Amino acid sequence: MMPSMMDVLPNGEETGDFFAVDIGGTNFRVILVSLSEKRGEVARFEMEEFAIPEEYFSCHADRLFDLLADSLVTFAKRYGFSGNRTAPVGFCFSFPVDQTAVDAGTMIKLTKKFDNEGFVGSDPVQMLQRAILRFKAPFKVVALLNDSVGTLAGACYEDPNAKVGVILGTGTNACYVEQVANIATLAKGSTKRQTMVVNTEWGNFTAASLPITEVDREMDETTPNAGEYHFEKMVSGMYMGEVARRIILRLAEEAQLFGPSVPDELRVEWALSTPAMSKIVEDGSWTLSRTAQILAETLHLPPSRCTYSACSTVKAVCLMVSRRSAALVAACLAGLLCHIGRDGSNGAMQETTVAIDGGLFEHFDAYREFLSEYMEQMLGPEVAAKVQLKRIRDASSMGSAYLAAAVTASS
Ligand code: ADP
Ligand code: MG
């Protein structure tokens, strides 16, 4: 857990034009919001989203920052932003950072698919600012945050009950509002305020009680950040499909799931994506024809080998992997809510909003149901009814712009 240095959160009173750059693990976005005088009103919202091109997962960091700066500058021009005055930018950078100020920090390590040189040990704000200067563009990066903090900020803009932000996308993370007095690692005098957002960096959570399986360990060894981020690898969108594929392969090898021989196609690492896996979970057809179709499309298994019985085993595996993820997230969320006194254990339970963003949560309908089900199990129905799991689209990007606004207003 690390202090995010964010001791202000937007409250809807901010005004002006603000930009954000948001880089996750699959996509990056640039956005512009114009906040009007009317409280909580967004007069204008523009966004462009790009898939991160494959070569940028391994190029030098400078090139990646050039891409971000170029996209921001081109985007701003396209939407008629004149360069007469300097515009504040919120930078949503979803990697572990040792944050030293709202607009400064040191990158600790790379996660997800990234394996670039020039990142670790550098300050992402300075790197983006330098790249922007190369384009001679009038932007100032005023806030550095990760996507969970952005999501919480996005929710706070219109919902004072928002206390926790969660990401369920390519990776996973969570943050929450903490009393400054409880943050032991925060240097004295870092803030005059009473609360600050803490970045749990829960993707890297591990404990003796975390039931990491043999399959998890085997997959871990093939990742750029082997030995770390075990929780993320059991939970998030980048990994779930691959965990399922490995279990299915084991069943083919040890229990002849697809007949006497093992289809070679099953051995291709990362061939089953989480979106494909989620469609299998949601296959409601009597004959599981959709599952057979997905196995044919993604793993190139011939229809003759995808019997009903094989498909139903595959579906059961995908369901288990998805449910495990939702159960682990619910357990950690319940722990966080307990920590901030929002688990109903000390008197009347206050309405609490957990703001959630990310492709896994947004697009996988059954997953949202599993998560609610496990939250109810952990907290009991009465308390769970007061905890709203709020899906906020684009929250991390919007929240980054709002935070740029809040930081500008408070400085
Ligand atoms: P980022 O993490 O880059 O910010 P997103 O929040 O858009 O990106 O999340 C992308 C991730 O969401 C992908 O890695 C993918 O695994 C997951 N995802 C997207 N669509 C689905 C789906 N239909 N079912 C399950 N997971 C999905
Ligand atoms: Mg994201």
From TrEMBL:
Residues in Hexokinase N-terminal domain copies: 1-157
Pfam families reported for this sequence: Hexokinase_1 (PF00349), Hexokinase_2 (PF03727)
Enzyme class: transferase
Biological processes, Gene Ontology terms: glucose metabolic process; glycolytic process; intracellular glucose homeostasis
InterPro entries, per the entry: ATPase_NBD, Hexokinase, Hexokinase_C, Hexokinase_N
GO function terms (MF aspect): ATP binding; D-glucose binding; fructokinase activity; glucokinase activity
Coiled coil: none
Transmembrane segments: none
Catalytic activity: D-fructose + ATP = D-fructose 6-phosphate + ADP + H(+); a D-hexose + ATP = a D-hexose 6-phosphate + ADP + H(+)
Domain Hexokinase C-terminal: 163-405
Key words of the record: ATP-binding, Glycolysis, Kinase, Nucleotide-binding, Transferase
Pathway the protein acts in: Carbohydrate degradation; glycolysis; D-glyceraldehyde 3-phosphate and glycerone phosphate from D-glucose: step 1/4; Carbohydrate metabolism; hexose metabolism
Annotated Gene Ontology cellular component terms: cytosol; mitochondrion
EC number: 2.7.1.-
Glycosyltransferase in keyword set: no
Record-stated family: Belongs to the hexokinase family.
UniProt-recorded name of the protein: Phosphotransferase
Organism encoding this protein: Coccomyxa subellipsoidea (strain C-169)
